[in-house]
Specification:
Its EC number is 1.5.1.5, 3.5.4.9. This is Methylenetetrahydrofolate dehydrogenase (NADP+)/methenyltetrahydrofolate cyclohydrolase. The protein has 10 helices and 11 strands. Strand 2, helix 2 and strand 3 form a beta-alpha-beta unit. It starts with 7 loop residues before the first strand and ends with a helix. It is 43% helix and 17% strand.
Length: 303
């Protein structure tokens, strides 16, 4: 028996449009009160894919009324200089969100750079303070892709409590935060990976299957139980019939007859990532205002 409603395609483009409309409404309200949220995007080097991602982020910010600031640095930028840029952005009260586009050139320590971003402005949700806060269930900035996946699941499935969720992949960007968010939603969560024994059998237990491994069409029909909800985070470019195309980690055609709901690739999870970057920029502003209020209260408290 299916654990969720009857078969449906999970339309990430439509859901992302709704999220952006919600953000735009909130931004309009803030601007009427004399406040405009601002997002700074830092790009080091000339990586073509990164330039496309940055351009799309800046365009979405403009669409919802968020002011964007681009910092483009040459590929030979010294780490100390990049850290100096981040420190300036941390100190600027007009900047609410800071995003350093990955990957960085090989001579720069990615971890050190991400740790230099103020946790209250870390709209990617990669700072250790936010990672730890997520594990503790606190109200912190969380990675955009898993947050977007949770919105897709809630919109498609409603109540998630008690469902068995299997997450394929244990990356810091998707797998681990995805598992933590599913736990917060009272799911029973299993994380599987390349060292897990009998992956298909573990995946067949899932009411919800989230795949983020980056292997095209790894997951076939024999990995799925009838009625599963599939969230396919994988975006893989393959050559097929003489043409280049994007496919997910899941064999979509094989999964479609079995799934109660499934995300396509493209058009599923992808649009949600930038939508939640915009949402995180507003959350960052709110967390900063809360922190400022706590500081004012502490300053006026009797010693």
């Amino acid at each position: 028996m299916n654990a969720f409603p009857s078969l449906k395609l999970i339309d990430g483009k439509a859901t992302a449009a709704r999220v952006l409309a919600e953000v735009r409404e909130q931004v309009d309200s803030l601007r009427r009160g004399g406040m405009q949220p601002a997002l700074a995007v830092v790009l080091v080097g000339q990586d073509a894919a990164s330039q496309v991602y940055v351009r799309n982020k800046v365009l979405r910010a403009a669409e919802v009324g968020i002011r964007s600031l681009e910092q483009r640095l040459p590929s030979d930028t010294e780490q100390a200089d990049l850290l100096g840029v981040i420190e300036q952005l941390n100190r600027d009260p007009a900047i609410n969100g800071i995003l350093v586009q990955l990957p960085l050139p090989g001579h720069i320590d990615e971890h050190q750079v991400l740790q230099a971003i103020s946790p209250l402005k870390d709209v990617d949700g990669f700072h250790s303070a936010n990672v730890g806060g997520l594990a503790q269930g606190r109200d912190v900035l969380t990675p955009c892709t898993p947050s977007g996946c949770m919105r897709l699941l809630r919109d498609a499935c409603g109540e998630l409590r008690g469902k068995h969720a299997v997450v394929i992949g244990r990356s810091n960007i998707v797998g681990k935060p995805m598992a933590a968010l599913l736990l917060q939603a009272d799911c029973t969560v299993t994380v599987v990976h390349s060292r897990s024994h009998d992956l298909p059998a573990l995946c067949r237990q899932a009411d919800i299957l989230v795949s983020a491994v980056g292997k095209p069409r790894l997951i076939g029909a024999d990995w799925l139980k009838p009625g599963v909800v599939v969230i396919d985070v994988g975006i893989n470019r393959i050559e097929e019939d003489g043409r280049s195309r994007l496919v997910g980690d899941v064999d979509f055609a094989a999964a479609l007859p079995l799934a109660a709901a499934i995300t396509p690739v493209p058009g599923g999870v992808g649009p949600m990532t930038i939508a939640y970057l915009m949402k995180n920029t507003l959350l960052a502003l709110d967390l900063q205002q809360q922190a400022a209020q706590r500081e004012r209260t502490a300053c006026h408290s009797p010693c």
